[in-house]
Design brief:
ComF family protein, PRTase-like, Rossmann fold
C-alpha cells in the first residue's frame, strides 16, 4: 500500500524506474559483476579496473546520483565498489581509497560530491579501509563533455592537486595500499592527473578502480 509521501513523491528504482523501490533486485544483480581490467587512452601508469561497463542500470544509477539528486543510490553503488575493491585488495595491508575530485561548481549543483559519497560508503563496508579525500580541482577546469582525450588532458593539466593539510591528517603508513576511485572512466584524463598529483606528494598509488568504464 502506498504511503502519502510516495503518492506525492513516487519512489522509483534508480536503475529502471520500477515503482515502489529505490533499487530493485534486478538492477542490484547488474552490479554484482567485475571487476574487469580496462586500458584507457590516457594511461595513468597504474592498473585500471571497472566494476562494469557504462551501460544499463549501472549507467542510469550513476547519472541519477550525479544529475538528479538521487543521494540514496550512493549505497548500492558504494557496496558494488566495495565488492570490487575487496576482490582486488591485498589482505595483509590497510586500504585507503582516494576519491577523484570534482569541480566545485558541479559539487554545489549536485548537493555534494557523489564520488566522495560513494567512496565513504565503500570504505565503511570494508574492514581495514578508509576514504581519504586528498585531492581538489583548481579553478579553470571546463566541463569535459564533448572533449577528446588530448583536450581532456590539457583541460586538467596542473589543475588537480593534493590538499597538504588533508595529506598530513591522513597519516598514511608505508604499508598502506592507496587506490584512486571514480564513478566513470572515459579517456583516463582525470585518473592520469590525479595519480600524478598524488605521486608529486609522495603517495604511491597502486590502482584505479571505477564504477564503470566507457
Amino acid at each position: 500500500m502506498l504511503t502519502l509521501l510516495e503518492l506525492v513523491l513516487p519512489q522509483l528504482c534508480g536503475g529502471c524506474d520500477e515503482p515502489g523501490t529505490g533499487w530493485c533486485p534486478s538492477c542490484a544483480g547488474e552490479l554484482r559483476t567485475g571487476p574487469v581490467r580496462v586500458r584507457p587512452r590516457s594511461d595513468p601508469g597504474v592498473p585500471c579496473w571497472a566494476i562494469g561497463s557504462y551501460a544499463g542500470a549501472r549507467r542510469r544509477a550513476v547519472i541519477a546520483a550525479k544529475e538528479h539528486g538521487r543521494r540514496d543510490l550512493a549505497v548500492p553503488l558504494g557496496v558494488a565498489l566495495a565488492r570490487g575493491l575487496d576482490r582486488l585488495r591485498a589482505r595483509d595491508r590497510p586500504l585507503v581509497i582516494v576519491p577523484a575530485p570534482s569541480r566545485r561548481a558541479a559539487a554545489r549543483r549536485r548537493g555534494g560530491d557523489p564520488v566522495a559519497r560513494v567512496a565513504r560508503i565503500a570504505a565503511s563496508s570494508l574492514a581495514g579501509c578508509r576514504s581519504a579525500p586528498l585531492l581538489r580541482m583548481r579553478p579553470g577546469v571546463r566541463d569535459s563533455v564533448g572533449l577528446g582525450p588530448r583536450a581532456r588532458l590539457l583541460n586538467l593539466r596542473g589543475r588537480i592537486v593534493t590538499v597538504p593539510r588533508r595529506v598530513a591528517r591522513a597519516g598514511l603508513t608505508p604499508d598502506a595500499e592507496v587506490v584512486l576511485v571514480d564513478d566513470v572512466l572515459t579517456t583516463g584524463a582525470t585518473a592520469t592527473e590525479s595519480t600524478r598529483a598524488l605521486r608529486a606528494a609522495g603517495i604511491d598509488v597502486r590502482a584505479v578502480v571505477v564504477t564503470c568504464a566507457v
